[in-house]
């Protein structure tokens, strides 16, 4: 046992050596430490190692840990132990068989390696402490807050254990990784609750708007669009000299007789242009503001 320990010291790191010594000096099949030590170092010394002192150095440096465990297994077999009793020693000790054999985090995968093992955080988890080896401090990644999710801008991201889900927001359709606007106005009855209204689609929603010249009015809990009286609510834009006349959905501006609506004013109509409105002989048309008169031509009274 002492000779084998010297070989291990030449091959293993200090951390591996501690684990190897602890394992070799205990029996996973419930045999006591003293029993296995007496069998190995007493009546039946290590065969294949103890008989090669001159080549121990070369063997430890050139061969892998797999070879060392094979030699130990051969020695134990020659000492009278069955392979099944020490099957865990054949080739390698699997530290991943139980949590006592490794220091992987509870949210990490343990992968057995020849002479050791590695720890890898589960999908959706990451190493929280970079000062520790990988897989020793695994923390859940919140993809929704870290910005590593794949949800559409119009979707809600819901964090889950080891992952996340994407669900399109109200007014959108899709699988969550892509979402497109729903055109609610494609349904003819969408605005049926507001008589006379017109549906206007918006991004993620819609509006039931009254047509131009109408306003919403609710009577007895029922909404409807009614004509807007622009003449009485002050929204009409008529010239000061004109008279506002309300129309269904609109209005008009009536200028006084002899004037016409010209932009923001009521302009005079020149009745004398475009034809002789004065039919009597030897008369001529004289235009006045908002009217006209017929007078005698020069030389006549």
Report on this model:
- There is one protein chain.
- With 301 residues, the protein is α+β, with helices and mostly antiparallel strands.
- The protein has four domains: 92 residues, no CATH class; 38 residues, Laminin, CATH 2.10.25; 44 residues, Laminin; 37 residues, Laminin, CATH 2.10.25.
- The protein is 20% helix and 30% strand.
- It contains seven helices and 19 strands.
- The strands form nine sheets. The protein has a three-stranded mixed sheet with strand order 9-13-12, with no helix packed on it.
- 16% of the residues are buried.
- The N terminus is likely disordered.
Order of helices and strands: HHHHHEEEEHEEEEEEEEEHEEEEEE
Q: Give the CA-CA distance, first to last residue.
A: 155 Å
Q: What number of domains?
A: 4
Largest sheet: 3 strands, mixed
Label the overall shape: rod-shaped
Task: Tally the beta strands.
Answer: 19
Oligomer: single chain
The helicity comes to 10-25%
Stretches where pLDDT is under 50 for at least 5 consecutive residues are: 1-68, 85-91
Mean pLDDT: 75
Output the number of helix runs: 7
Tell me the radius of gyration. 50 Å
Biggest sheet: strands side by side, in what order? 9-13-12
Query: What class would the helix/strand composition place it in?
Result: alpha+beta
Q: Beta-sheet strand percentage? A: 25-35%
